[in-house]
């Protein structure tokens, strides 16, 4: 008689319970040394319910099907010169930021979940983290593969992996993940699994991928949809983790709240770059950053935090500040890159008159008052043949590492600056949020590798900025960067399209 | 709690100690309500540098790209050093007038409010 086939529920039970073993002669605390130092109390790992009950064989089957479809579409994109279908060469600069700034984070997520997938003594959580780790590795691979087509025709893609560890603005996403990965396993899960993936990545994947579709970039749309189908599972894991921690012990509640506060702030600072991509880098715009924030955070996130209120969890600290900042951050970020366009790995530009009007319409209370004048000044300078590239190097925030470009919400003309002295040394911050994070764990953030200070310490080559860009960052100065006007990218595009 | 770490008493390495800057110290300069410059600017300067050199070299390097820079009336400029009112003394070194490593010097120009008076 043939062996009885197991149903999925039994398969999952055998994978996640029966495959584990009890420690009869070793101290479990030595086997799982990271499980307790954060102060989290787990009373019963058996209460863990995996939201998807995924087993290895079903995982391979689903993912293999997805890969097959994805690569068929990418091949077709490549064979049909899909790059010529994007609406405007300016758009491709958003893809450059995605490849240099976002895809390496998928790799960091892969490493982080692989680590956490070893550190929990509860086997259900371990298996779920291992599956997510594999997803993240697949995401970085498919993104690199999708974008490699653009690398054949546009500048600025060639050294993304080298640049991740070195370039000044890439220290922002890099430090976000190294902060999470050097925390304990539970903080990592709240940082990445909950705060970033559950609360914030919708803002990256949904509106930005729609943006790719609106701008003719089917390669990005394809990997976006493929990744998004995994994200649903990741988000559910993030939510499961937080509910599990809150239900296990009441002492966990204040610790989890502190992590939510911290990672909400760090996450929204990181998403500044997405705000800028949506409002300024998509030639065909889908929705403004402000609208996206209202839909995906204020409405969806608001409902989530209402749901978590029964555990004693409140809205993240400084959500009220962020609610005001939604009017400002995209403009402040693009101005920063425009004025540092000589030191970026992509092209920048002054928005067209039509785009300036769209911004006025989307930001009626702030754009004309605070930001249109910047572009009027930039236009004047450009007309004089003095396209504005700022001199010198900016002050950076010790925590988020972003140049201190944000302003006070009660006086948006004044930069927001905070500082504190720790053990005789002064540290500077862009906000109360970043200052609080430092004060909570100063010994962690005194180690921040701040690119501007590293340049001044002589650790990045130089001394001239041009040498740092070419030798240390490996940018092709004057080709990968500067204004889109007159760039080789623009010249090639005009030739392909038969435009003089 | 200075850090949550597996090892009790763990200490991080202070990456930006003044000894790491080859005899210089970092000083930040910011021109209030002039957002043409997205952030304050950082400079590595010898502690013995007199403030006159800041006026003659550093501030022009940092801010002269602004169309209002040449119109600044330096007699009415209001200075702040690390959030306290400050009166720079031209012939005194940075160190001797309390400008130490990672100090922040900000100035306000009461007559000049940025491009078209709009804080840019």
Describe this structure in words.
- The complex is a heterodimer of chains A (500) and B (120).
- Chain A has 500 residues and is mostly helical.
- Chain A is 61% helix and 4% strand.
- Chain A has helices at residues 8-18, 28-31, 56-79, 92-119, 123-151, 160-164, 171-181, 185-200, 202-214, 218-248, 252-270, 272-281, 289-308, 319-325, 329-339, 353-362, 367-383, 432-440, 442-445, 451-456, 465-472, 488-497, and strands spanning 393-394, 407-408, 411-415, 418-422, 425-429.
- In chain A, helix 3 (56-79) packs parallel to helix 5 (123-151), helix 5 runs antiparallel to helix 10 and helix 8 (185-200) crosses helix 11 (252-270).
- The termini of chain A are far apart.
- The model of chain A has no long low-confidence stretch (mean pLDDT 93).
- Chain B is α+β, with helices and mostly antiparallel strands and 120 residues long.
- Chain B has a single domain (22-117), classed as Roll (Ubiquitin-like (UB roll)), CATH 3.10.20.
- In chain B, 11% of the residues lie in helices and 21% in strands.
- Chain B has one helix at residues 51-63; strands at 25-31, 41-45, 78-81, 84-86, 103-108.
- In chain B, strands 2-1-5-3-4 form a 5-stranded mixed β-sheet, with helices on one face.
- Chain B is globular, with a radius of gyration of 17 Å.
- Chain B starts with 24 loop residues before the first strand and ends in a 12-residue tail after the last strand.
- Chains A and B meet through helix 15, helix 17, strand 1, strand 3 and strand 5 of A and strand 1 and strand 2 of B.
- Strand 1 of chain A pairs antiparallel with strand 2 (41-45) of chain B.
- Portion of residues in helices of chain B? 10-25%
Shape of chain A: globular
Q: Which class best fits the helix and strand makeup of chain B? A: alpha+beta
Number of helices of chain B: 1
| Helix/strand structural class of chain A | mainly alpha
Low-confidence stretches of chain A: none
How many distinct domains of chain B?
Answer: 1
Strand numbers in spatial order across the main sheet of chain A: 2-3
- Please provide the count of β strands of chain A: 5
Strand content of chain B: 15-25%
Pfam families (chain B): Phenol_monoox
Organism (chain B): Amphritea japonica ATCC BAA-1530
GO molecular function (chain B): phenol 2-monooxygenase activity
Protein name (chain B): Phenol hydroxylase P4 protein
């Amino acid at each position: 008689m043939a062996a009885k086939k197991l149903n999925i529920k039994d398969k999952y039970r055998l994978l996640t319970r029966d495959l584990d073993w009890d420690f009869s002669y070793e101290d479990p605390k030595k086997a799982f040394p990271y499980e307790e130092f954060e102060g989290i109390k787990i009373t019963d790992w058996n209460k863990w319910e995996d939201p998807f009950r995924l087993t290895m064989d079903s995982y391979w089957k689903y993912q293999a099907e997805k890969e097959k479809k994805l690569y068929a579409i990418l091949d077709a994109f490549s064979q049909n010169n899909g790059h010529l279908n994007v609406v405007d060469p300016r758009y491709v600069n958003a893809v450059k930021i995605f490849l240099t700034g976002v895809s390496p984070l998928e790799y960091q997520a892969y490493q982080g979940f692989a680590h956490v997938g070893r550190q929990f003594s509860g086997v259900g959580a371990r298996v779920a983290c291992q599956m997510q780790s594999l997803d993240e590795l697949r995401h970085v691979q498919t993104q690199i593969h999708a974008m490699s087509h653009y690398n054949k025709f546009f500048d600025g893609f060639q050294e993304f992996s080298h640049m991740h560890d070195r370039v000044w603005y890439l220290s922002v996403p890099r430090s976000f993940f190294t902060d999470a990965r050097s925390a304990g396993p539970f903080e990592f899960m709240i940082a990445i699994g909950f705060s970033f993936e559950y609360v914030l990545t919708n803002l990256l994947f949904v509106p930005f991928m729609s943006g790719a579709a609106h701008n003719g970039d089917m390669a990005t749309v394809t990997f976006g949809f493929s990744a998004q189908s995994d994200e649903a599972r990741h988000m559910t894991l993030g939510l499961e983790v937080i509910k599990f921690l809150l239900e296990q012990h009441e002492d966990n509640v204040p610790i989890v709240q502190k992590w939510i506060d911290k990672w909400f702030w760090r996450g929204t600072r990181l998403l500044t770059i997405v705000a800028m991509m949506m409002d300024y880098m998509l030639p065909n715009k889908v929705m403004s950053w402000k609208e996206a924030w209202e839909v995906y955070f204020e409405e969806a996130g608001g409902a989530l935090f209402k749901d978590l209120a029964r555990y004693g969890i409140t809205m993240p600290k400084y959500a009220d500040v962020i609610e005001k900042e939604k009017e400002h951050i995209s403009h402040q970020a693009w101005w920063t890159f425009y004025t540092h366009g000589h030191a970026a790995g992509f092209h920048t530009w002054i928005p067209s008159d039509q785009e300036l009007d769209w911004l006025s319409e989307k930001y009626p209370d702030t754009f004309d008052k605070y930001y249109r004048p910047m572009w009027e000044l930039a236009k004047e300078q450009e007309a004089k043949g003095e396209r504005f590239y700022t001199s010198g190097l900016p002050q950076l925030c010790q925590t988020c590492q972003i140049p201190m470009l944000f302003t006070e919400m009660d006086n948006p003309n004044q930069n927001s600056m905070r500082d504190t002295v720790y053990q005789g040394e002064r540290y500077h911050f862009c906000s109360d949020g970043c200052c609080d994070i430092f004060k909570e764990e100063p010994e962690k953030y005194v180690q921040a590798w701040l690119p501007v200070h590293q340049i001044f310490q002589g650790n990045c080559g130089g001394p001239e900025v041009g040498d740092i860009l070419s030798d240390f960052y490996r940018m092709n100065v004057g080709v990968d960067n500067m204004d889109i006007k007159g760039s080789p990218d623009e010249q090639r595009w005009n030739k392909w399209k038969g435009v003089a | 709690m200075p850090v949550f770490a597996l090892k009790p008493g763990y200490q991080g390495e202070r990456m930006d100690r003044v000894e790491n800057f080859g005899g210089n110290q970092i000083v930040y300069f910011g021109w209030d309500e002039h957002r043409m410059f997205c952030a304050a600017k950082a400079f590595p300067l010898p502690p013995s540098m007199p403030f006159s050199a800041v006026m003659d070299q550093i501030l022009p390097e940092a801010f002269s790209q602004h169309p209002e820079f040449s119109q600044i009336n330096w007699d009415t400029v209001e200075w702040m050093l690390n959030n306290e009112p400050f009166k720079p003394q031209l012939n005194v070194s940075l160190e001797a007038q309390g400008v130490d490593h990672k100090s922040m010097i900000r100035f306000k120009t009461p007559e000049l409010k940025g491009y078209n008076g709009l804080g840019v």
